Amino acid sequence: MRCGAGASTRDFWTRHLPVPELSLEGVVHVYRGGVRALDGVDLRIGAGERVAMVGQNGSGKSTLLRHLNGLLRPTAGRVVIDGTDMLRRHVAELAAIVGVVFQDPDRQIFAGSVIEECRFGPRNLGRSRGVLAESVEEALAHTGLTGQEARNPYDLGHSRRKLLALASVLAMRTPILVLDEPTTGQDRAGAERVRSIIDSVAAAGRTVIAVTHDMELAAEHFERVVVMRSGSVILDGPPGEVLDEAHREHLSSTNLEPPLAAQLATRLGVRGTVTESGLVAALRSSAASQ
């Protein structure tokens, strides 16, 4: 997956790993102690979709995320991949389909060098030597870690360890990529790199799901936004609808605000615009028509 998602990458997905549909059907999850983290969630994510999940801490986002690759199992309901209940899938099979990057890289990284961290996943999935080498090289290039292969991960700063955790999952070339707060803890350059990776993975036809508090990221790089509150989905749709000022009350109920561009658009009398580029285009169009 070289920057720009080359033909060899698309051929890889077509031949080996078709992108599946993913759905949650009435999913309930109750933790020990009685905390009901998910309360009957119904959610369908089509092949190749980009979905951002937003909501305050404790709304159920991360619990839902951990159901997507079998780290957690539903108390009730089911998680389905291409019509098959996840409970019927082996853990190794799920690992080849859904790659999850945790918010805290130190919960994910364990190898003694950057290169070994990136090799571990694809090697365990049985990738051929050529595919393994290519996928690791591309993952390191995407994350800006080329030249750091021999370094101990814990000699890297936190933001770079987070990029390494991302690289280790990118190298697995899973058809579904799940990110937990991917821009948190990143400087501006790191956040831009993450955004570029999301766009590149999506351009290759793969599904990208992100849990995030970064409303600009959700508005600008995802085609669908799911808002959660108290273990339930309260809004679900395109960013231009979900993050519009018209839904401020719903967003505020889960401690969210529309992106700054959406707030400015409302004050300027421009509706349905939630991104900076969209606002600029709308203002230019308005000025040209006057």
Could you give a quick summary of the protein structure above?
With 290 residues, the protein is of the alpha/beta class. The protein has helices at residues 7-16, 61-65, 91-97, 114-124, 129-143, 158-170, 188-203, 215-221, 239-242, 248-252, 260-267, 276-289, and strands at 22-30, 36-45, 50-54, 76-81, 84-85, 98-101, 176-180, 207-211, 224-229, 232-237.
List the helices and strands and how they pair.
Layout: H1 7-16, E1 22-30, E2 36-45, E3 50-54, H2 61-65, E4 76-81, E5 84-85, H3 91-97, E6 98-101, H4 114-124, H5 129-143, H6 158-170, E7 176-180, H7 188-203, E8 207-211, H8 215-221, E9 224-229, E10 232-237, H9 239-242, H10 248-252, H11 260-267, H12 276-289
Helix pairs in contact: 4-5, 4-6, 5-6
Helix content: 25-40%
Mean pLDDT: 88
CATH topology: Rossmann fold
What is the C-alpha radius of gyration, as a whole number of Å? 19 Å
| Order of strands in the sheet with most strands | 6-7-8-3-9-10
Tell me the count of domains: 1
**Would you count the extended β strands for me?**
10
Distance between the termini: 46 Å
CATH architecture: 3-Layer(aba) Sandwich
The outline comes out as globular
Which residue ranges are poorly predicted, with pLDDT under 50 across at least 5 consecutive positions? 1-15
**Order of helices and strands, N to C?**
HEEEHEEHEHHHEHEHEEHHHH
Largest sheet: 6 strands, mixed
Strand content: 15-25%
Give me the number of helical elements. Answer: 12
Q: Helix/strand-derived class?
A: alpha/beta
CATH class placement: Alpha Beta
CATH-wise, what's the superfamily?
P-loop containing nucleotide triphosphate hydrolases
